[in-house]
Amino acid sequence: xxxxxxxxxxxxxxxxxxxxxxxxxxxxxxxxxxxxxxxxxxxxxxxxxxxxxxxxxxxxxxxxxxxxxxxxxxxxxxxxxxxxxxxxxxxxxxxxxxxxxxxxxxxxxxxxxxxxxxxxxxxxxxxxxxxxxxxxxxxxxxxxxxxxxxxxxxxxxxxxxxxxxxxxxxxxxxxxxxxxxxxxxxxxxxxxxxxxxxxxxxxxxxxxxxxxxxxxxxxxxxxxxxxxxxxxxxxxxxxxxxxxxxxxxxxxxxxxxxxxxxxxxxxxxxxxxxxxxxxxxxxxxxxxxxxxxxxxxxxxxxxxxxxxxxxxxxxxxxxxxxxxxxxxxxxxxxxxxxxxxxxxxxxxxxxxxxxxxxxxxxxxxxxxxxxxxxxxxxxxxxxxxxxxxxxxxxxxxxxxxxxxxxxxxxxxxxxxxxxxxxxxxxxxxxxxxxxxxxxxxxxxxxxxxxxxxxxxxxxxxxxxxxxxxxxxxxxxxxxxxxxxxxxxxxxxxxxxxxxxxxxxxxxxxxxxxxxxxxxxxxxxxxxxxxxxxxxxxxxxxxxxxxxxxxxxxxxxxxxxxxxxxxxxxxxxxxxxxxxxxxxxxxxxxxxxxxxxxxxxxxxxxxxxxxxxxxxxxxxxxxxxxxxxxxxxxxxxxxxxxxxxxxxxxxxxxxxxxxxxxxxxxxxxxxxxxx
Length: 674
Ligand code: IVH
Known about the structure:
Elements: H1 4-27, H2 35-51, E1 75-77, E2 86-88, H3 91-105, E3 112-118, E4 121-128, E5 131-137, E6 143-145, H4 148-152, E7 169-177, H5 180-192, H6 201-209, H7 214-217, E8 223-231, H8 241-250, E9 260-262, H9 265-278, E10 286-293, H10 296-302, E11 304-305, E12 308-309, E13 312-316, E14 320-333, E15 339-350, E16 353-359, H11 363-369, E17 376-381, E18 388-392, E19 417-419, E20 426-428, H12 435-446, H13 458-466, H14 473-478, H15 481-485, H16 492-505, E21 507-508, H17 510-516, H18 524-534, H19 537-542, H20 545-549, H21 556-567, H22 569-580, E22 584-585, E23 589-590, E24 602-606, H23 614-623, E25 627-628, E26 638-641, H24 647-655, E27 658-660, H25 662-668
Parallel strand pairs: 1-23, 2-13, 21-22, 24-25, 24-26, 26-27
Antiparallel strand pairs: 1-6, 3-9, 3-10, 4-5, 4-7, 7-8, 10-13, 11-12, 14-15, 14-17, 15-16, 17-18, 19-20
Helix pairs in contact: 1-2, 12-13, 17-18
Bound molecules: 2-(butylsulfanyl)adenosine (IVH).
2-(butylsulfanyl)adenosine (IVH) binds at residues 83-85, 115, 117-118, 122, 138, 175, 227, 290, 309, 312, 314.
């Protein structure tokens, strides 16, 4: 009989062996063990852990199986925003991108890292003390959803990092994808079970990741590819992005072996051409190429513009196109009253997805494209965006097309339509008196990114409005099971589920609530910015236009809409009434444990600091809760200046931004006594 200490040793050895063999199997595609041999190791681990359950740890491979959680996904604030990428489509765009970069840095040429743009879902993984502790989706870039349980089921992601010199904390960013072969197998399985087929690997990956029950995710063959690493300590002395990719693979975190480097625009274009050539043979879908300035110092210097880095761009593949027939053109009334013409199409598959409608945006677009009922058209679909009509195939016109004209009255409420000031959008100004706008407002309120009430989609909202049961947001919270059961489409279970979903939705965040109420011009990201900045509805109501504009990314138009909304007594009273029924705003659980010295403060680094390397200074600021950006603006809190600081220092002086030196930074972050 083994002692407990001996068992513990054996367990630890088994875990390392299992991880190593999983890596060989899932990452290198080069297994050493037969499946049966692997199963024996795994079974032995399960047996020992069953005998000594107290020795089970979260990073044990046996903990990948997943389980049902009753909770919806928790919100997670990212340590640094997860950004998007600017795009280039042509060689000329690429030349312009390279020129901007070289001019800004003041060099003739610059080294780039080139890599595939995976067509999946961005996630952030956190490892603390070598253990995989947290995984979050991108969400709105600032706040994502906790998908740790689901990501743990992906066998190629190590639950524990092995090796020497592993930093206390690292953040890994990458993409969850489904390999083409796994996608095909999954769809065969779905078909066998008479279940819904997935349109493409990306949708399959997204659906799998969004399972509340991670034991379902565990049955879905997901893969992961990391494309960046962030260290919170400097011991690895990363100089380039490529060093980061190398470190990731040293940590046995899967990366793509297609990444390369080059120093010229021709080199970038050659890489693009090479990948296009092999694209259809790659094991996963990609939707472009990403070029990144390789030097991390240069990346810092270039910084960010809006929500994208200046040091990287995505060279997108042309969107897929197909030909079909316009069966009809109708108009839709949106939540804000905008009237959008929509082409009803003969169903056609574009990029693996069946397309039956395409937006024509507005009247000008309709006229410019000259689309008529009965025309043959080219339709385009790129990524997740709404399908669009590229052009009419005029050669195919038979002469029997029917011309469509925009209505002068709202097709739903009959009120006279009017043009927006800029003349582009035709709008029904009847607001909530127009049942289409009211319905869309309610559907928006219940949607996933808003109050997330599962089961209250367009059809049911329509039905509840028709029955006269739901007329505004508040009515949703007054719904009763007994009443629902009496309605068509509802049975005991579905009524119960809806009531439960409504109850659950009361636990939300201020950001989601602000987004849900549908203030004109306030999208998800602005709603989250408002919540973060003001922290309460009352404060937003009290804010002046200037105070609203002080929020990053909010300009005069948006601040005016917010102000108007909160100044409407009817609207504000309704909000308060909803809150009274017991809406609770959960504090977003940041993946940092306490508030830090520099929480919410923005820094710019410039010049050479006396002792700290730029990377080190940056990691000190970030780990104290601050943000480092590339350029100085009114919204910068501190400029940390060293020797030979140039234009950034001048601008800081002009804008009255506080300028500090290295010593003051260290004091501020409590890295040195006062
Ligand atoms: S770097 C700050 N590298 O593309 C830039 N992104 O539009 C961070 N993506 O959602 C992104 N492959 O998930 C980078 N090799 C790659 C990528 C990649 C796919 C996705 C990423 C993000 C989107 C950005």
